[in-house]
Amino acid sequence: MENIKTKIDPLIGRIFFNKYKIIKNIGGGSFGQIYSAKYNNKWFALKLEEKLKSQNLLENEGHIMSYLQSKYLPYIYSFGYSGDYNVLVMELMGKSLENIFENSNPKKFSVNCVAKLGLQMIEILQFIHDMHIIHRDIKPDNFVLGLGDKSKNIYLLDFGLAKKYRSSKSFKHYPMVKKKNLTGTARYASINALNGLTQSRRDDLEAVGYVLLYFLRGKLPWQGIHVRNKDDRYHKIMEIKMSITPEELCKGFPKQFENYIRYCRNLEYTENPEYNYLKKLFNEVLKGCSENIYDWDIVNKTIITATTSSTSRRPITIENKNEKKKKINDYSEKMMSTFMNNGTVNFKTICSKDEYIDTNRSRINNRFKKLINKNNDYENMAEFTEEDNCKKKCPNNFGVIHNKRQLEKSFEINKNKDEDFCLII
């Protein structure tokens, strides 16, 4: 029988700058890896790049993001060097749009949802372009949600490939030349970028158009092609993009998406894009839609409704001690993971100090935010129970648990007992 060894990340638990303790790998960018880290009961994101393999992309990203520091990007705390790594410390964000999309069912976003995303993306690009910077790697992985009160906002990440496209004094564009290699991601890259031309604002905007169509269609026509090597793949993708008209690409969707693609493709290298026109297109799609919710908000709301129904509120009785320990650990991890990814915890009920059982979604989330904001930590997370059912199942062990410490203490008290231990999940 083949032995399967679990690869352990050596960076987990390591401390950088004598304070940031690495907790978990949460992804990777065009270079390096991103980790969640904790210091002084606060959470951060650390992006790490090995010095020996470095192309100075992380340093470039740190400089550019610090220069752009705004409401559209994660807050940058510091950049430096520690041991074998270049380290960028920034605000911890939520899930990427790619992650949300990959886990959606069906694997498509609604027209209104995509139009809302488009509005925010254009606004972000308008800001960084006005600051003389182009991103050059627009893709769903690089757009993320905020946490907590910022969960409705979209943020742009991964500025390792970003650069100035014009002089900040004269506003004169740097010369356009034809290069050999593509900078960026072929699936979403503009036709001109695939052709090796120097990129400008038009290329970021065209890439956003392909991202939005990816969300609408579920798959782009040039995905999944099989070729011999990377250069052939890039060339084939370019051929397909050039052969498909905006009308064909956007068939079945509002005309505004077709107008968007056509406009971006027709922009000249140094032309100033009409951002207000592009935002107007998406506002036309959203005409009459006043709710500030995305598709995944609706899904979460459905889950909340289902889990607060009387038929689903059943405690789980755990008899085996090892199973008991595993269930506690899994649940504790689930609480932390859910908040890190979504900024809210969508469980059944949340208990205030007077042990009041609440099932209203808005009140639950508001109370949870107050608990978290108080100490900016997970230690104030609440455990949730359904009082009546739990008391009937295990009256001796019933108790409302208000935070993680109490949860752990409860486990310590109950793990060695022979009687059942009741945990609501």
Q: Count the E strands.
A: 12
Beta-strand share of residues: 5-15%
Supply the number of helical segments. 14
Helix fraction?
25-40%
Mean pLDDT: 78
Q: Quaternary state, please?
A: single chain
Unreliable residue stretches: 1-6, 301-319, 339-360, 374-403, 417-425
Overall structural class, as computed from helix and strand content, comes to: alpha+beta
How is the main sheet built? 6 strands, antiparallel
Order of helices and strands: EEEEHEEHHEEEEHHHHHHHEHHHHE
What is the CA-CA span between the terminal residues?
36 Å
Going across the biggest sheet, name each strand in turn.
1-2-3-4-6-5
Global outline: globular
Radius of gyration: 25 Å
Structure description:
- By secondary structure, the protein is α+β, with helices and mostly antiparallel strands.
- The longest helix is centred in the C-terminal third of the chain and has 22 residues, at 321-342.
- The chain is globular, with a radius of gyration of 25 Å.
- It has a six-stranded antiparallel beta sheet, covered by helices on one side. A two-stranded antiparallel ribbon has the order 7-10.
- The protein has helices spanning 57-68, 97-102, 111-130, 191-194, 201-217, 230-243, 246-249, 255-265, 275-285, 295-307, 321-342, 361-375, 387-393, 404-414, and strands spanning 15-16, 20-28, 33-39, 42-50, 76-82, 85-91, 133-134, 143-145, 154-156, 163-164, 316-318, 421-423.
- Helix 3 (111-130) runs antiparallel to helix 9.
Layout: helices, strands, pairs:
Elements: E1 15-16, E2 20-28, E3 33-39, E4 42-50, H1 57-68, E5 76-82, E6 85-91, H2 97-102, H3 111-130, E7 133-134, E8 143-145, E9 154-156, E10 163-164, H4 191-194, H5 201-217, H6 230-243, H7 246-249, H8 255-265, H9 275-285, H10 295-307, E11 316-318, H11 321-342, H12 361-375, H13 387-393, H14 404-414, E12 421-423
Helix pairs in contact: 3-5, 3-9, 5-8, 8-9, 11-14
